[in-house]
Amino acid sequence: LTESVPDLLAQRYRTAQLPALAAADATIATLLGHRSVRRFLHHGEPGSEVTEAHVATMVAAAQSASTSSDVQAWSVIEVRDPERRALLGDLSDNAVHVRQAPLTLVWVADLARQHALLAREPDAAGSPAPPVNGRLLEAGLVSFLDTALAAQNAAVAAESMGLGICYLGGVRNEPEQVAELLGLPAHTFALFGMCVGVPDPDRLPRRRPRLPQSVVRHAETYGAPPSEPVRLSDLEGMAAYDDTVAAFDLERGADRGPGGRWAARMRRRLADVAALHGRERLRAVMRERGFPLE
Ligand SMILES: Cc1cc2nc3c(=O)[nH]c(=O)nc-3n(C[C@H](O)[C@H](O)[C@H](O)COP(=O)(O)O)c2cc1C
Questions:
Q1: Which atom, in ligand 1's list, is nearest to the CA of 205?
Q2: For 7-52, what is each residue's pLDDT tens digit?
Q3: Minimum CA distance residue for ligand 1 atom 14
Q4: Measured in angstroms, how far is the CA atom of residue 5 from the centroid of ligand 1?
């Protein structure tokens, strides 16, 4: 990274008042320097490859994340085959960057290993021990959380090595077809993908601003008054952020109009089922795949 931590901080918040940081080391710089990359060097261009050692490093970082009760309830599938990547890109509505990046990782919530252990351990009556707890929402949450923490560690490792990544929640648009494409067994579920490549230096995106810290931080208790969903200062902070994002969009030449403002997009995402691209069916699909989430 060529930019300094103060520069990165200013890009992250785009406000006059910036938080005071306790450190500005390489780890903080990598974290603050994040941006989703959707334009990569093409396969065959010098320096465009994501090597086996890159992936091994990302996975070692992923496996170093905390894991609920040591279950390590995730797997990652490396998809390099251009045809399989193209299919994955189409299925997930992310065709352009998934085709361009040499590697797509699919992060899988995985309770199959636990089920396999149970199946080999009969109870006193000689029948396989029933996976009582495996049916619960808690089991699902454990695997989703473990998967997300692992993936984010891998993302930071990738960015630290100069690679770029973009998460792909779009793999949940067509979960049955994605499961078939990847040969996923029962008790596994593709939570999200991540395309990985060397960023095209001529098409690096600007870093997206985030909400002011005052909105996401709460001292001791949440602090919303009884009649309000949030603190009044949160509404002000969100309005200011809405303006920040609108100015950011103008600056990067992506004027989305009033309907494209942050608050409008958030409202639509929560209120309009079409915004889910099929993911409204997820509960039923997950039950089918062995995540009853009871
Ligand atoms: C779980 C998850 C799923 C995402 N899915 C997609 C996706 O399907 N396609 C895409 O282009 N970006 C996707 N993103 C990237 C977000 O759009 C991006 O992180 C967000 O706009 C903030 O931008 P930044 O990452 O550049 O800071 C996803 C991010 C997360 C965390």
A1: 26
A2: 999 999 999 999 999 999 999 999 999 999 999 998 788 899 999 9
A3: 167
A4: 22
Please give the single-letter amino acid code of residue 127.
Answer: S
CB of 265 closer than 6 angstroms to any ligand 1 atom: no
Q: From the CA of 168, how far away is ligand 1's center (Å)?
A: 7
Atom of ligand 1 nearest to the CA of 148: 1
**DSSP secondary structure letter of residue 290:** T
Long-range contacts of 78-81 (CB under 8 A, 24+ apart): 78/103, 78/104, 78/105, 79/103, 79/104, 79/105, 79/106, 79/182, 80/104
With a 6 Å cutoff on the Cβ, whether 170 touches ligand 1 is yes
Q: Whose CA is nearest to atom 9 of ligand 1?
A: 168
Q: What single string gives the DSSP state of each residue in 191-252? A: EEEEEEE-B-GGGPPPPPP---HHHH--SSS----TTSSS-HHHHHHHHHHHHHHHHHHHHT
pLDDT tens digits along 198-243? 999 999 999 999 999 999 999 999 999 999 999 999 999 999 999 9
Atom of ligand 1 lying closest to residue 170 CA: 8
**Atom number in ligand 1 closest to CA 191:** 1
**Model confidence, pTM:** 0.96
- Tokens at 269, concatenated: 């995402």
Q: Please report the beta strands in 80-202, taking only residues with DSSP state E, as ranges in sequence order.
A: 103-110, 164-168, 188-197
Instruction: Name the residue among 277, 293, 292 with its Cα closest to residue 171.
Output: 277
Other CB atoms within a 10 A radius of the CB of residue 156 amount to 18
Kindly report the CA angle at 31 between 247 and 236, in degrees rounded to 5? 40
